Fold this protein.
Amino acid sequence: MAATKQPQLFNIILSDPSGGVRGRPSRKIAVAAKASLYDLAEAAIEAFDFDLDHAFGFYDNIINWTRAEEGYELFADIGQESRFPGVQKVKISSVFLAPKQRMLLLFDYGVCWHFIVQYLGDAEVEPAQKLPHVIESNEKTYEQYDSFGVEDDWDED
């Protein structure tokens, strides 16, 4: 099967830890067909106005990532022990094989932001459109560092 050159479309939903998505923020993003899982994660995280400043991984078990049978982790790319391959050299086309396929993108293993990444197929974008590109944004997102009611005390006098 020949690799497609058409940009790929993904629906990214910021889910709750149990995989719940009702009323949760989502983004539809187009990424280059040749993009890596790292590129996809970067596009997804930045689409929610988060900084890509923590480790992450993709897992086939949406609800319990520790029981995933298939996964890809940044840890493997940075020389840390990992039971899964890395994300930097793995192309999205070798992981997301059919529309509607989903994986969990777990970002920041301390806070554990859960993003459900669903492959939608080929994206329809203008030929000159720079990729990655947010095609649709639904619902306001959360603040990356104060979503748990933690007050910032750095500005104390």
